[in-house]
Specification:
Two copies of one chain form a homodimer. Chain A has about 240 residues and is an all-alpha fold. Chain A has one domain (about 15-230): Heme Oxygenase, Chain A. Chain A is built from eleven helices and no strands. Chain A is globular and about 55 Å long. The mean pLDDT of chain A is about 95. The interface between A and B is medium-sized, with 30 and 30 residues. Chains A, B: InterPro entries: Haem_Oase-like_multi-hlx (IPR016084), PqqC (IPR011845), PqqC-like (IPR039068), Thiaminase-2/PQQC (IPR004305). Chains A, B: Ring cyclization and eight-electron oxidation of 3a-(2-amino-2-carboxyethyl)-4,5-dioxo-4,5,6,7,8,9-hexahydroquinoline-7,9-dicarboxylic-acid to PQQ. Chains A, B: Pathway: Cofactor biosynthesis; pyrroloquinoline quinone biosynthesis. Chains A, B: Keywords: Oxidoreductase, PQQ biosynthesis. Chains A, B: It is an enzyme of class 1 (oxidoreductase).
Chain lengths: ~240, ~240
């Protein structure tokens, strides 16, 4: 059994997990941001990542459905608003579709998830299920990857604009919003787990939840890298960029 | 809406899916059977595949828990017996541990799933959940990959014995059993879906269930291939063979 950490020690342990395991360290990101991908590969990334985006409000709603404290539900509700918007055409999901439109993907196919990698679906569904089934503390903790998001988003936007003539600032509007939303959300979640994880086993649960979420993100990039960076590996039924295979 | 097929047309459609999507077509299998992997890579395969094996009786029990017909439950129970054995040390799972032992893996680590790829867990858990949540017809249909297993097993045993001095006939005892078990099981499941899928939408469900299961198997090999065949891709926290990284 590990000892009880102070809240600040727990925060330090969580930040150490992010430094080692967050998907900004994945080689696919270096390729994406460094302009080393072609349009078809960026399409594959945006198509698969849409499935992740589309499931985020489901997992946030699942968390709300388990939170008995109205204050927690209200705080968390903002995440759903951020993704779904106040009306048709607004919110993060609509902004992601704006990106897939700009990349020339068929919107109906994106929304249906036609051609996404099975590994994307398996990883994302595992995340939604985790939030549905684990403790509320673990569900909150699994959102903590957002602590590490602002840095990657800054790099991404700058790198993609500098390197891809098929990507415009406008197409990347999703990320502008996330630069303010992610820190607000992760500050709240970090305070929550520092306050609520009062026993060593709960602190361990919190760390394991963050490790799990890092795996969810990493596995998605592994699958993209395998299928679309190395030649000849696109699995049967998955999206094939023009001119590939 | 597609037209109703005859039972034999449905069987032909299912066999066509297997020809196109079963994981015997995956490049990792060619490497495995062709002697192109080193001991560490075969260890990684056996370690990850253990997780799949270990979950098969859970999914078969889940199916039984939903089958109201005692005859179906009795038939299906044999699968659980095959995997779990009649007593400690018997059955398919014990035989798989015999293989991981022979490959020099730590048995406690294998049983705990220490170091398995997150993608393995996501794919296998998706399969168990599918059987728990979908219709009984789809649950039965998702087992139909066993129609295509005998050919791959024959190739595997011959190829591994011929090519790897660290693999013995005895270590591969698991597969000898499967050569008789898989055809018996798949004959039953095939008869079941041919009989029970009486509407076009049910026939479509059956085909989709088989496609899903092919994805589950394929995604596991994709993850192994990415992590252990191409250099530098082992995800954080995953098994690292001696001398790698």
């Amino acid at each position: 059994m590990t000892d009880l950490m102070t809240p600040d020690q727990l925060e330090a342990a969580l930040r150490a997990i992010g430094r080692e395991r967050y998907h900004d360290r994945h080689p696919f990101h270096a390729l994406l941001h460094g302009g080393k991908l072609d349009r078809g590969q960026v399409q594959a990334w945006a198509l698969n990542r849409y499935y992740y985006q589309s499931r985020i409000p489901l997992k946030d709603s699942a968390l709300m459905s388990r939170a008995e404290d109205p204050a927690l539900r209200r705080e968390w509700r903002q995440r759903v608003v951020d993704h779904d918007g106040e009306r048709e055409g607004e919110g993060g999901i609509a902004r992601w579709l704006h990106l897939t439109d700009a990349l020339g993907l068929d919107r109906a196919a994106v929304i249906d998830g036609r051609g996404i990698l099975p590994a994307t679906r398996f990883a994302v569904d595992a995340y939604v299920r985790f939030v549905r089934e684990r403790t509320l503390l673990e569900a909150v903790a699994s959102s903590l990857t957002e602590l590490f998001a602002p840095a990657i988003i800054g790099n991404r936007v700058a790198g993609m604009l500098a390197n891809y003539d098929f990507v415009s600032r406008d197409a990347l509007a999703y990320f502008d919003k996330r630069l303010t939303q992610a820190p607000r959300d992760s500050d709240f979640a970090l305070d929550y787990v520092k306050r609520e994880a009062r026993r060593p086993d709960q602190q361990q649960d919190v760390m394991n939840a963050l490790l799990f979420k890092c795996d969810v993100l990493w596995a998605q990039l592994d699958a993209l890298h395998h299928a679309y960076v190395e030649p000849g590996n696109i699995p049967p039924g998955a999206f094939v960029p023009e001119g590939r295979r």
